[in-house]
Amino acid sequence: MHVLIAPDSFKESLDAEQTARAIARGVRAASADAEVTLCPLGDGGEGTLAAILAASGAEARSLTVQDALGRPHSARWGWIATRRTAIVELAEASGLQQLTSDERDATRTSTHGVGELIAAALDAGAEKLMLTLGGSATNDGGSGMMQALGARFIDRHGETLSPGGAALAGLEHIDLSGIDPRLATLEVEAAVDVNNPLCGANGASAVFGPQKGATPPQVKALDAALARLAEVVAASDMSDHRDTPGAGAAGGMGFAALAFLGARLRPGIELVMAQVGFEAALASADLVITGEGRLDGQSLGGKTPIGVSRSAARAGVPCVVLAGKLDDGWQAVFDEGVSAAFALADGPMTLEQALEGAERLLAERSESIMRLWQAAQSSSRRG
Protein backbone atom coordinates (compact mmCIF):
# COMPACT_ATOMS: atom_id res chain seq x y z
CA MET A 1 0.00 0.00 0.00
CA HIS A 2 1.60 3.27 -1.16
CA VAL A 3 0.12 6.58 -0.01
CA LEU A 4 1.29 9.80 -1.65
CA ILE A 5 0.77 12.78 0.66
CA ALA A 6 0.82 16.04 -1.32
CA PRO A 7 -0.79 18.95 0.54
CA ASP A 8 -0.43 22.71 0.45
CA SER A 9 0.01 24.73 3.64
CA PHE A 10 -2.80 25.46 6.06
CA LYS A 11 -2.32 29.22 6.15
CA GLU A 12 -1.61 30.83 9.53
CA SER A 13 -1.26 27.36 11.03
CA LEU A 14 1.04 24.82 9.32
CA ASP A 15 3.34 24.99 6.32
CA ALA A 16 3.07 22.33 3.63
CA GLU A 17 5.81 20.13 5.11
CA GLN A 18 4.27 20.23 8.60
CA THR A 19 0.89 19.42 7.07
CA ALA A 20 2.31 16.45 5.19
CA ARG A 21 3.98 15.09 8.32
CA ALA A 22 0.74 15.38 10.33
CA ILE A 23 -1.17 13.47 7.66
CA ALA A 24 1.55 10.83 7.56
CA ARG A 25 1.24 10.26 11.32
CA GLY A 26 -2.44 9.51 10.90
CA VAL A 27 -1.82 7.17 7.97
CA ARG A 28 0.80 5.21 9.90
CA ALA A 29 -1.40 5.05 13.00
CA ALA A 30 -3.94 3.10 10.94
CA SER A 31 -1.46 1.16 8.82
CA ALA A 32 2.05 0.82 10.22
CA ASP A 33 3.32 -1.02 7.15
CA ALA A 34 2.01 1.50 4.60
CA GLU A 35 4.60 3.00 2.29
CA VAL A 36 4.29 6.77 2.61
CA THR A 37 5.78 9.42 0.32
CA LEU A 38 5.67 13.04 1.41
CA CYS A 39 5.47 15.60 -1.37
CA PRO A 40 4.69 19.07 0.09
CA LEU A 41 3.35 21.44 -2.56
CA GLY A 42 2.35 25.03 -3.19
CA ASP A 43 0.40 26.79 -5.90
CA GLY A 44 2.19 30.12 -5.98
CA GLY A 45 1.24 31.49 -2.58
CA GLU A 46 2.92 31.39 0.80
CA GLY A 47 5.10 28.30 1.21
CA THR A 48 5.67 27.63 -2.49
CA LEU A 49 9.34 28.54 -2.27
CA ALA A 50 9.83 26.26 0.72
CA ALA A 51 8.29 23.33 -1.15
CA ILE A 52 10.57 23.87 -4.14
CA LEU A 53 13.67 24.32 -2.00
CA ALA A 54 12.95 21.10 -0.12
CA ALA A 55 12.45 19.05 -3.28
CA SER A 56 14.85 20.54 -5.82
CA GLY A 57 18.03 21.16 -3.89
CA ALA A 58 17.94 24.83 -4.81
CA GLU A 59 20.08 27.15 -2.71
CA ALA A 60 18.18 29.35 -0.28
CA ARG A 61 19.37 32.94 -0.22
CA SER A 62 18.08 35.88 1.79
CA LEU A 63 17.94 39.63 1.43
CA THR A 64 16.64 42.47 3.56
CA VAL A 65 13.92 44.18 1.53
CA GLN A 66 10.89 46.36 2.14
CA ASP A 67 7.81 44.55 3.32
CA ALA A 68 4.38 45.56 2.03
CA LEU A 69 4.40 48.62 4.29
CA GLY A 70 7.97 49.65 3.52
CA ARG A 71 9.60 48.25 6.66
CA PRO A 72 12.88 46.28 6.63
CA HIS A 73 12.17 42.58 6.30
CA SER A 74 14.34 39.52 5.63
CA ALA A 75 13.02 37.60 2.63
CA ARG A 76 14.26 34.37 1.08
CA TRP A 77 14.64 33.51 -2.59
CA GLY A 78 15.92 30.44 -4.38
CA TRP A 79 18.87 29.97 -6.70
CA ILE A 80 19.62 27.02 -9.01
CA ALA A 81 23.12 27.81 -10.23
CA THR A 82 23.33 25.01 -12.81
CA ARG A 83 20.28 26.42 -14.59
CA ARG A 84 20.91 30.11 -13.86
CA THR A 85 17.38 30.11 -12.48
CA ALA A 86 16.01 32.18 -9.63
CA ILE A 87 12.82 31.50 -7.68
CA VAL A 88 11.13 34.55 -6.18
CA GLU A 89 8.03 34.15 -4.02
CA LEU A 90 5.97 37.33 -3.76
CA ALA A 91 4.65 36.33 -0.34
CA GLU A 92 8.21 36.29 1.06
CA ALA A 93 8.53 40.02 0.43
CA SER A 94 4.98 41.39 0.31
CA GLY A 95 2.92 38.68 1.95
CA LEU A 96 -0.33 39.13 3.82
CA GLN A 97 0.93 36.83 6.58
CA GLN A 98 3.50 39.44 7.64
CA LEU A 99 0.84 41.99 8.58
CA THR A 100 -1.52 42.00 11.52
CA SER A 101 -5.21 42.38 10.75
CA ASP A 102 -5.00 46.03 11.82
CA GLU A 103 -2.10 46.70 9.43
CA ARG A 104 -3.80 45.42 6.30
CA ASP A 105 -4.44 48.32 3.94
CA ALA A 106 -4.70 47.49 0.25
CA THR A 107 -4.70 51.18 -0.66
CA ARG A 108 -1.06 51.70 0.35
CA THR A 109 0.70 48.32 0.48
CA SER A 110 3.42 47.87 -2.12
CA THR A 111 5.28 45.13 -4.03
CA HIS A 112 8.57 47.06 -3.89
CA GLY A 113 10.28 44.23 -2.02
CA VAL A 114 9.54 41.79 -4.83
CA GLY A 115 11.42 44.04 -7.23
CA GLU A 116 14.36 44.11 -4.83
CA LEU A 117 14.48 40.30 -4.85
CA ILE A 118 14.39 40.24 -8.65
CA ALA A 119 17.24 42.73 -8.75
CA ALA A 120 19.26 40.44 -6.46
CA ALA A 121 18.55 37.54 -8.79
CA LEU A 122 19.80 39.57 -11.75
CA ASP A 123 22.94 40.46 -9.78
CA ALA A 124 23.53 36.73 -9.28
CA GLY A 125 23.39 36.19 -13.03
CA ALA A 126 19.85 34.89 -13.40
CA GLU A 127 18.76 34.10 -16.94
CA LYS A 128 15.45 32.56 -15.91
CA LEU A 129 13.01 33.58 -13.21
CA MET A 130 10.18 31.64 -11.64
CA LEU A 131 7.99 34.28 -9.99
CA THR A 132 5.29 32.87 -7.71
CA LEU A 133 2.25 35.09 -7.28
CA GLY A 134 -0.08 34.50 -4.37
CA GLY A 135 -0.63 35.37 -0.74
CA SER A 136 -0.06 39.07 -1.33
CA ALA A 137 -1.01 41.95 0.91
CA THR A 138 -0.99 44.25 -2.10
CA ASN A 139 -3.23 45.71 -4.79
CA ASP A 140 -0.75 47.93 -6.60
CA GLY A 141 -0.71 46.26 -10.02
CA GLY A 142 2.98 45.50 -9.62
CA SER A 143 3.89 49.19 -9.67
CA GLY A 144 6.05 48.85 -6.55
CA MET A 145 7.96 45.95 -8.09
CA MET A 146 8.63 47.93 -11.24
CA GLN A 147 9.68 51.05 -9.29
CA ALA A 148 12.30 48.93 -7.53
CA LEU A 149 13.52 47.84 -10.97
CA GLY A 150 13.92 51.39 -12.26
CA ALA A 151 10.52 52.40 -13.66
CA ARG A 152 8.83 55.67 -12.73
CA PHE A 153 5.07 56.02 -12.31
CA ILE A 154 4.32 59.72 -12.77
CA ASP A 155 1.30 61.92 -12.10
CA ARG A 156 0.13 64.89 -14.21
CA HIS A 157 2.42 67.22 -12.29
CA GLY A 158 5.49 65.18 -13.18
CA GLU A 159 5.84 63.81 -9.66
CA THR A 160 6.49 60.17 -8.79
CA LEU A 161 3.45 58.43 -7.34
CA SER A 162 3.47 57.38 -3.71
CA PRO A 163 3.42 53.62 -2.98
CA GLY A 164 0.21 51.59 -3.09
CA GLY A 165 -2.74 50.83 -5.29
CA ALA A 166 -4.79 53.92 -4.50
CA ALA A 167 -2.12 56.23 -5.93
CA LEU A 168 -2.54 54.69 -9.38
CA ALA A 169 -5.75 56.69 -9.79
CA GLY A 170 -3.50 59.68 -10.49
CA LEU A 171 -1.22 57.92 -12.97
CA GLU A 172 -0.45 59.93 -16.08
CA HIS A 173 2.69 58.37 -17.53
CA ILE A 174 5.06 55.43 -17.04
CA ASP A 175 8.73 56.17 -17.68
CA LEU A 176 10.66 52.98 -18.44
CA SER A 177 13.87 54.68 -19.54
CA GLY A 178 15.61 53.81 -16.29
CA ILE A 179 14.47 50.20 -16.11
CA ASP A 180 17.11 47.55 -15.45
CA PRO A 181 18.33 46.55 -18.95
CA ARG A 182 18.94 42.96 -17.85
CA LEU A 183 15.17 42.42 -17.75
CA ALA A 184 15.11 42.46 -21.55
CA THR A 185 16.74 39.02 -21.74
CA LEU A 186 15.29 37.51 -18.55
CA GLU A 187 12.96 34.59 -19.24
CA VAL A 188 10.07 34.81 -16.78
CA GLU A 189 7.46 32.26 -15.82
CA ALA A 190 4.87 33.53 -13.36
CA ALA A 191 3.02 31.00 -11.22
CA VAL A 192 -0.59 31.99 -10.51
CA ASP A 193 -3.20 30.26 -8.39
CA VAL A 194 -6.25 32.13 -9.74
CA ASN A 195 -7.61 32.98 -13.19
CA ASN A 196 -9.19 36.35 -12.39
CA PRO A 197 -8.84 39.31 -14.77
CA LEU A 198 -7.39 42.60 -13.58
CA CYS A 199 -10.61 44.60 -13.17
CA GLY A 200 -14.36 44.27 -12.77
CA ALA A 201 -16.66 42.20 -10.61
CA ASN A 202 -14.32 39.22 -10.81
CA GLY A 203 -11.14 41.28 -10.73
CA ALA A 204 -8.31 41.64 -8.26
CA SER A 205 -9.86 44.40 -6.14
CA ALA A 206 -13.42 43.06 -5.94
CA VAL A 207 -12.53 39.47 -5.16
CA PHE A 208 -9.38 39.77 -3.05
CA GLY A 209 -9.35 43.38 -1.83
CA PRO A 210 -11.54 42.78 1.23
CA GLN A 211 -9.19 40.15 2.69
CA LYS A 212 -6.39 42.72 2.34
CA GLY A 213 -8.29 45.26 4.42
CA ALA A 214 -10.19 47.16 1.71
CA THR A 215 -13.62 48.55 2.57
CA PRO A 216 -16.38 48.52 -0.10
CA PRO A 217 -15.64 52.15 -1.13
CA GLN A 218 -11.93 51.34 -1.26
CA VAL A 219 -12.58 48.28 -3.41
CA LYS A 220 -14.37 50.47 -5.93
CA ALA A 221 -11.55 53.04 -5.89
CA LEU A 222 -8.86 50.38 -6.21
CA ASP A 223 -10.63 48.79 -9.15
CA ALA A 224 -10.76 52.16 -10.91
CA ALA A 225 -7.08 52.73 -10.11
CA LEU A 226 -6.08 49.41 -11.70
CA ALA A 227 -8.21 50.27 -14.73
CA ARG A 228 -6.27 53.53 -14.98
CA LEU A 229 -3.00 51.57 -14.89
CA ALA A 230 -4.24 49.39 -17.75
CA GLU A 231 -5.26 52.45 -19.77
CA VAL A 232 -1.84 54.08 -19.39
CA VAL A 233 -0.06 50.84 -20.26
CA ALA A 234 -2.18 50.46 -23.40
CA ALA A 235 -1.50 54.09 -24.36
CA SER A 236 2.23 53.43 -24.00
CA ASP A 237 2.17 50.91 -26.86
CA MET A 238 2.43 47.94 -24.51
CA SER A 239 0.00 45.06 -24.76
CA ASP A 240 -3.23 45.43 -22.81
CA HIS A 241 -3.55 42.32 -20.65
CA ARG A 242 -6.30 43.50 -18.32
CA ASP A 243 -8.67 40.72 -19.42
CA THR A 244 -6.08 37.94 -19.56
CA PRO A 245 -6.93 35.14 -17.10
CA GLY A 246 -4.58 35.45 -14.15
CA ALA A 247 -3.89 39.17 -14.67
CA GLY A 248 -5.67 39.84 -11.38
CA ALA A 249 -3.44 37.47 -9.42
CA ALA A 250 -1.80 39.02 -6.34
CA GLY A 251 -3.47 42.40 -6.68
CA GLY A 252 -2.61 42.80 -10.34
CA MET A 253 0.89 41.33 -10.24
CA GLY A 254 -0.15 38.94 -12.99
CA PHE A 255 -0.85 41.98 -15.17
CA ALA A 256 2.53 43.51 -14.34
CA ALA A 257 4.36 40.27 -15.10
CA LEU A 258 2.71 40.13 -18.52
CA ALA A 259 2.98 43.81 -19.42
CA PHE A 260 6.41 44.69 -18.05
CA LEU A 261 8.34 41.42 -17.78
CA GLY A 262 6.97 39.60 -20.82
CA ALA A 263 6.15 36.68 -18.57
CA ARG A 264 4.31 33.51 -19.37
CA LEU A 265 1.56 32.85 -16.83
CA ARG A 266 1.12 29.24 -15.76
CA PRO A 267 -0.93 27.59 -13.02
CA GLY A 268 1.38 27.61 -10.04
CA ILE A 269 0.56 24.07 -9.02
CA GLU A 270 1.68 22.78 -12.44
CA LEU A 271 5.03 24.54 -12.15
CA VAL A 272 5.59 23.29 -8.63
CA MET A 273 4.60 19.70 -9.39
CA ALA A 274 7.08 19.70 -12.26
CA GLN A 275 9.84 21.06 -10.00
CA VAL A 276 9.31 18.49 -7.23
CA GLY A 277 8.83 15.38 -9.40
CA PHE A 278 5.19 14.81 -8.49
CA GLU A 279 4.33 12.66 -11.52
CA ALA A 280 7.12 10.19 -10.74
CA ALA A 281 5.85 9.79 -7.18
CA LEU A 282 2.27 9.42 -8.41
CA ALA A 283 3.20 6.55 -10.74
CA SER A 284 3.50 4.06 -7.86
CA ALA A 285 0.78 5.45 -5.57
CA ASP A 286 -2.39 3.59 -4.58
CA LEU A 287 -3.96 6.60 -2.85
CA VAL A 288 -3.30 10.34 -2.80
CA ILE A 289 -4.13 12.59 0.14
CA THR A 290 -3.94 16.33 -0.42
CA GLY A 291 -5.41 19.39 1.26
CA GLU A 292 -5.30 23.06 2.18
CA GLY A 293 -7.04 25.47 4.50
CA ARG A 294 -10.17 26.04 2.45
CA LEU A 295 -11.88 24.13 -0.35
CA ASP A 296 -14.55 25.97 -2.33
CA GLY A 297 -15.71 26.79 -5.84
CA GLN A 298 -12.75 29.13 -6.36
CA SER A 299 -10.36 26.24 -5.77
CA LEU A 300 -11.00 25.18 -9.35
CA GLY A 301 -9.13 28.28 -10.53
CA GLY A 302 -5.76 26.66 -9.81
CA LYS A 303 -5.46 25.67 -6.15
CA THR A 304 -3.23 22.81 -5.05
CA PRO A 305 -5.89 20.15 -4.29
CA ILE A 306 -7.40 20.51 -7.75
CA GLY A 307 -4.07 20.34 -9.54
CA VAL A 308 -3.30 17.20 -7.57
CA SER A 309 -6.72 15.62 -8.12
CA ARG A 310 -6.62 16.23 -11.87
CA SER A 311 -3.25 14.53 -12.14
CA ALA A 312 -4.43 11.67 -9.93
CA ALA A 313 -7.54 11.21 -12.07
CA ARG A 314 -5.43 10.97 -15.23
CA ALA A 315 -3.35 8.27 -13.53
CA GLY A 316 -6.43 6.44 -12.22
CA VAL A 317 -5.47 6.96 -8.56
CA PRO A 318 -8.12 7.88 -5.93
CA CYS A 319 -7.60 11.29 -4.35
CA VAL A 320 -8.89 12.49 -0.96
CA VAL A 321 -8.87 16.15 0.11
CA LEU A 322 -8.62 17.38 3.70
CA ALA A 323 -9.62 21.00 4.25
CA GLY A 324 -9.90 23.26 7.22
CA LYS A 325 -13.25 24.35 5.81
CA LEU A 326 -15.56 23.23 3.00
CA ASP A 327 -17.07 26.44 1.68
CA ASP A 328 -19.51 27.59 -1.02
CA GLY A 329 -19.39 25.51 -4.17
CA TRP A 330 -16.96 22.91 -2.88
CA GLN A 331 -19.01 20.05 -4.33
CA ALA A 332 -17.77 21.01 -7.82
CA VAL A 333 -14.44 19.39 -6.95
CA PHE A 334 -15.95 15.97 -7.54
CA ASP A 335 -15.91 16.73 -11.25
CA GLU A 336 -12.15 17.36 -11.05
CA GLY A 337 -10.97 13.96 -9.87
CA VAL A 338 -11.59 14.32 -6.13
CA SER A 339 -12.85 11.02 -4.69
CA ALA A 340 -13.85 12.42 -1.30
CA ALA A 341 -13.38 15.60 0.73
CA PHE A 342 -13.48 16.11 4.49
CA ALA A 343 -13.41 19.13 6.78
CA LEU A 344 -11.14 18.91 9.81
CA ALA A 345 -13.38 20.25 12.58
CA ASP A 346 -14.74 17.51 14.85
CA GLY A 347 -17.24 19.78 16.56
CA PRO A 348 -18.02 23.45 17.21
CA MET A 349 -14.80 25.45 17.56
CA THR A 350 -13.47 28.92 16.98
CA LEU A 351 -11.06 29.74 14.17
CA GLU A 352 -8.31 30.13 16.75
CA GLN A 353 -9.02 26.66 18.13
CA ALA A 354 -9.00 25.18 14.62
CA LEU A 355 -5.66 26.80 13.79
CA GLU A 356 -4.08 25.67 17.04
CA GLY A 357 -5.42 22.13 16.68
CA ALA A 358 -4.76 21.67 12.95
CA GLU A 359 -1.92 19.20 13.42
CA ARG A 360 -3.98 16.92 15.67
CA LEU A 361 -7.07 17.20 13.48
CA LEU A 362 -5.13 16.34 10.33
CA ALA A 363 -3.67 13.23 11.95
CA GLU A 364 -7.05 12.09 13.26
CA ARG A 365 -8.85 12.58 9.96
CA SER A 366 -6.05 10.82 8.08
CA GLU A 367 -6.23 7.85 10.41
CA SER A 368 -9.99 7.60 9.84
CA ILE A 369 -9.50 7.82 6.07
CA MET A 370 -6.96 5.00 6.14
CA ARG A 371 -9.17 2.80 8.30
CA LEU A 372 -12.05 3.35 5.89
CA TRP A 373 -9.76 2.63 2.94
CA GLN A 374 -8.56 -0.62 4.53
CA ALA A 375 -12.11 -1.68 5.27
CA ALA A 376 -13.13 -1.02 1.67
CA GLN A 377 -10.12 -2.95 0.35
CA SER A 378 -10.87 -5.88 2.66
CA SER A 379 -14.49 -5.94 1.55
CA SER A 380 -13.44 -5.82 -2.09
CA ARG A 381 -11.13 -8.81 -1.66
CA ARG A 382 -13.87 -10.84 0.03
CA GLY A 383 -16.25 -9.97 -2.82
Automatic annotation (TrEMBL):
Domain of life: Bacteria
SUPFAM superfamilies, per database record: Glycerate kinase I (SSF110738)
UniProt cross-references to InterPro entries, sorted A to Z: Glyc_kinase_flavodox-like_fold, Glycerate_kinase, Glycerate_kinase_RE-like, Glycerate_kinase_sf
Organism this protein belongs to: Kushneria aurantia
Membrane-spanning ranges: none
Family: Belongs to the glycerate kinase type-1 family.
Any one GO molecular function term: kinase activity
Keywords: Kinase, Transferase
Protein name listed in UniProt: Glycerate kinase
